[in-house]
Amino acid sequence: MGTFDLEGKRVLVTGGARGLGAGMARAMAAAGASVMLGDVLKDTVEQTAADLAAATGARVAATAMDVTRDGDWEAAVARVVAEFGGLDVVVNNAGIEVTQLLVDTDADEVRGMLDVNVVGTMLGLKHGMRAMRPGGAAGRGGAIVNVSSVAATIAFPGIAGYSATKSAVDRLTRVAAAESGRLGYGVRVNCVHPGLVATEMGTKLAVETAQLGLFEGPEAAVEAVVALTPSGRLGEVADMADAVVFLASDASRFVNGAGLSVDGGMGM
């Protein structure tokens, strides 16, 4: 029987400096994994890694990386393999969100989201599968978990560009799972669709949709999300982190190419 135990797993989490990424890293470290946090926020990610190591007793390290750069991915993967002795799990969590009405579309800001959310995820798939497939630097198979969003499954005003990029992450997940299976890589690829969480990004979304005139205020925006959610509350970081631990663990050994909604039913 599979368990949620990650003992002996070597993990790379992008966007790990704060928010969902830091929460996912904490949960994986607590489950026994050795975790490398990657983020463009060098000082913050190093502090987060030190805090998580102290709190969990696990091996936790940090590396500065920009997920849109091939070279940064190569260096991060090489460091995980060298310091931890292999690579078993990649969590493609890094992402950015820009709130804007379609009539006010800023092409450069949309390109920025595409670069981080879509290209960054593709590069994570590229370098993760290369390392974990037979003959790779790790070569023992593994799991990749991409972080999509409930925004990929609902029509919420003010986030068209973000929704489009997160829909792309869902499709990338399924194509990657198909390629990995067809070519015998031994790498499972799944994604999660988090609901709204009161992280810095989630709070920013509530404030900015209100500023656009879509809601009377940030509180009204949050109330609208809760009203659409059968579970009757916002998500918590732990809700999302536990789902990622499941998809990284042997308990999900026959789950592949799936999009797991962790949104309290909002996107059903």
Write the layout of secondary structure elements.
Elements: E1 10-14, H1 19-30, E2 34-39, H2 42-56, E3 60-64, H3 70-84, E4 89-92, H4 107-132, E5 142-147, H5 160-183, E6 187-194, H6 200-211, H7 218-227, H8 237-248, E7 259-262
Parallel strand pairs: 1-2, 1-4, 2-3, 4-5, 5-6, 6-7
Helix pairs in contact: 1-2, 1-8, 3-4, 4-5, 6-7
Describe the structure.
The chain has 268 residues and is of the alpha/beta class. It folds into two domains: 207 residues, NAD(P)-binding Rossmann-like Domain (Rossmann fold, 3-Layer(aba) Sandwich); 38 residues, no CATH class. Helix content is 47%, strand content 14%. It is built from eight helices and seven strands; from the N terminus they run βαβαβαβαβαβαααβ. Strand 4, helix 4 and strand 5 form a beta-alpha-beta unit. The longest helix is centred in the middle third of the chain and has 26 residues. The radius of gyration is 18 Å and the shape is globular. The two termini are 30 Å apart. The mean pLDDT is 96.
What form results from the Cα inertia axes? globular
Strand order of the largest sheet: 3-2-1-4-5-6-7
Task: State the CATH class of the largest domain.
Answer: Alpha Beta
What is the helix fraction of residues, given as a range?
A: 40-55%
Q: What is the CATH topology classification name of the largest domain?
A: Rossmann fold
Rg, Å, rounded: 18 Å
Uncertain ranges = none
Number of E-state strands: 7
The succession of helices and strands, N to C, reads: EHEHEHEHEHEHHHE
> How much of the residues is beta strand, in percent?
5-15%
Under the CATH scheme, the architecture of the largest domain is 3-Layer(aba) Sandwich
In total, how many domains does the architecture comprise? 2
| Total number of helices | 8
Q: Which structural class is indicated by helix and strand composition?
A: alpha/beta
End-to-end separation in angstroms reads 30 Å
Major sheet description: 7 strands, parallel
CATH superfamily of the largest domain: NAD(P)-binding Rossmann-like Domain
Mean pLDDT level: 96
